[in-house]
Amino acid sequence: MTEPRPLLPPADERLTRYGRLRDSILHSPDWRRMIGWFAPLVVTLLAAVLRLVNLGHPHQLAFDETYYVKDAWSLWTLGYEGTWGENANDAFITLQELPLDPKGAFIVHPPLGKWLIALGMALGGPDNSVGWRLATALLGTGAVLLTYLIARRLTGSVAVATVAGTLLAVDGLGIVLSRIALLDGILTFFILLGALFVLYDRERTIPLLEQRDDGAPDPMWGRVLWRRPWLVAAGLALGAACAVKWSGLYALAAYGLYVVVTDALARRRAGVVLWPTDAAFRQGPVSFVLMVVPAFAVYLASWTGWLVTTGGYNRTLDPNPFVSLWRYHQAMLNFHVGLSSGHPYASPAWEWPFLLRPTAVWVGTDPGPCGVDHCIAVISSIPNPLIWYAGVAAAVYLVYHLVRALISPPIDPALTYPLVGLAAAYVPWLLFPERTIFQFYTVAMMPFLVLGLAVTLRIIAGRREDPLHRRQSGERTVMIFLAFVLVVSAFFYPVWTGMSVPYDFWLLHNWLPGWV
After folding, report:
1. Residue 124: how many other CB atoms lie within 10 Å
2. 228 Cβ contact partners less than 8 Å away, ≥ 6 residues apart
């Protein structure tokens, strides 16, 4: 008598069939085309909701908004930063007569970021706190989309790009710096835009540099390329970063060096005999002109308001306005180099990876009802701790991979490119241990941390050619991690947006002593 036929195939066979069916769906052209449009839209929409909802709260100048919002309105009305009288902060809240004196004030940051803040204020008026923060919110949302696009270009994977974009969308540091009118979120947007344009240049230029006639002997010199529109675009974007804060110069230098190095490696692959000299001394000056000259032009253009008026600080120091501008910059440089005044939330760069002292951006004096007697409302620039510490760990892994790849090529750009942005946003600050700096400066690092984390999670998830059980366990691990990330973000969201919460609930968010 024959045994009864089982109603279901064995478990291993079912898993294999499921894996094949899933792969056939996920890799079909129609599915990939649809998800290629849908994924960035959803990620950007999520970022917009978290950054724009209740953007006007708190309706008062928070932390360094006291500088940038007032300077922005001064730029809009005078063309340069004037001097503010007493009770100016209160005047912005109640729209009393604003005590703005046309006498030029000594300001230590370039004007572009404040001009962008001024555009939102022009729409809503000087007393509209949504208008103060509209530019930073929109550009913070744009930074999430740029992170997605960079990850997609690096990996060719919608899944990896979606993970990278989502991690930045739900991270607290990115949310807070998008909901407060500070310059660092704007700076981050332009650095990311420049990083994306450099990738476009690499995609277009590297194949041209690697072209050679297989039948010809190795050439002594390679091609010198002038037609590199994406490199010019990168220069414009990174010049805008410099025109927001001078720390954009670090990004301009880092990506300029990256272009020279990758040009050299492409020439070596093409068989150019003098490939280092060729890249540095023949193509290098051309790349400098294509990148740095547009950057300088954007930076200089950002000072137009100061140049075409006569009331700005030091404007009439010399009959030649450019000489006056140069002397103004000397004074700004002396200020930045000598800045060492104490601050309760100061955090030297060596502390940043350990997340020892995030900044309390705002503490409400009248937090409002929360269901208990003792309530509190705060805005803290602490990132999602899971994303931060996992991102730092991923960065360490990327450094290890880079060292190993230098010893035994090839080098995977997806695993090395995030290090360029991280180096530009972090390493220079280590050189100024005595300078007063803050943890929230790491908002410029955050996109590159999540890029590194996303490509590391892809390795954990496994490759398509791996055994099915390996991929399933890896994917399960990644999904569990991402689920915990979302839970932690939901838990911290009230202290990222200034919601009124019970005091004991707020205490639960202070995982380290320095987080208070």
Report:
1. 15
2. 201, 204, 205, 287, 290
Listed in sequence order, the residues at least 6 apart from 277 whose beta carbon sits closer than 8 Å to its beta carbon are: none
For residue 81, the Cα-to-chain-centroid distance in whole angstroms is: 27
Tell me how far apart the alpha carbons of residues 501 and 486 are, in angstroms, rounded to a whole number. Answer: 20
DSSP string, 69-98: HHHHHHHHHHSS-EEE-TTHHHHHHHT---
439: helix, strand or coil: helix
248-269 and 413-426 are packed helices; what angle lies between their axes, rounded to 10 degrees? Answer: 150
3-state secondary structure string across 256-280: HHHHHHHHHHHHHHCCCCCHHHHHH
Cα–Cα distance measured from residue 455 to residue 458, given in angstroms and rounded to the nearest whole number: 5
Task: Give the residue with greater pLDDT, 367 vs 457.
Answer: 457
DSSP 8-state code for residue 281: I
CB under 8 Å to 329, separation ≥6 — which residues? none
What is the residue extent of each domain of the chain?
A: 189-321
Q: How far apart, in whole angstroms, are the C-alpha atoms of residue 203 and residue 230?
A: 10
Place of tokens 């650095």: 191
Query: What tokens does 77 get?
Result: 């009305």
User: CA 504, CA 384: separation in Å to the nearest integer?
Assistant: 20
Query: pTM for this structure?
Result: 0.92
What are the pLDDT digits (tens) for 158-205?
A: 999 999 999 999 999 999 999 999 999 999 999 999 999 999 999 999
- Edge-to-edge order in the sheet of strand 375-380: 360-363, 375-380, 500-502
Helix (H, G, I), strand (E, B) or coil at 126: coil
Please state at what angle helix 446-461 crosses helix 172-179, rounded to 10 degrees.
150
Return the beta strands (E) in 434-511 as ranges: 500-502
Does residue 392 sit in helix, strand or coil? helix
**Dihedral class, residue 104 (left if φ above 0, else alpha if ψ from -120 to 50, else beta):** beta
